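Standup notes
- DV: blocked on the single-chain target, sequence here:
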Amino acid sequence: MSMYGEPIDNRSFYQGDILKDSPFLIIRKAFNISNENLVVRQLTIMLLSQTCDIEHRDFLIVARIVAVEDLGANANFLQSLRDRRQKYLFYLPGNDDFQESCVDFTQMIYIPKEALLIENRIKSLSDLGRHWLAYQIADYFGRPFDPAG
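- DV (later): unblocked, structure below
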């Protein structure tokens, strides 16, 4: 079974939809209170809000998608990513029309639903893909406290 599937219809968003050219607010690391430290870029993102919330909420949770090749990671890290052992990165395999990527759970924001365009959807997760996404979100945010760090 594939990680990707077809959306049920082309008029609604679903959890796990991947959208290109979508607004994403970036706060630079050297932050101080000034507008020059706040940047809105058009990026590829994934909808993380649950589908039922997408229908009924005005603001949705999205996360930035990063191409694996842009991570600059060594072979061991890349293997652990592909094996789904990196809790903060959700692995997205590449195929003919999508570059191998990952969703970065450390880069999530709320965005107004009206800022997202259905015609920018380039992929949707299959049932299996949404299962893996839900599992990894729960694992990332629900992990037990580790006093060792």
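- Follow-up: The mean pLDDT is 89.
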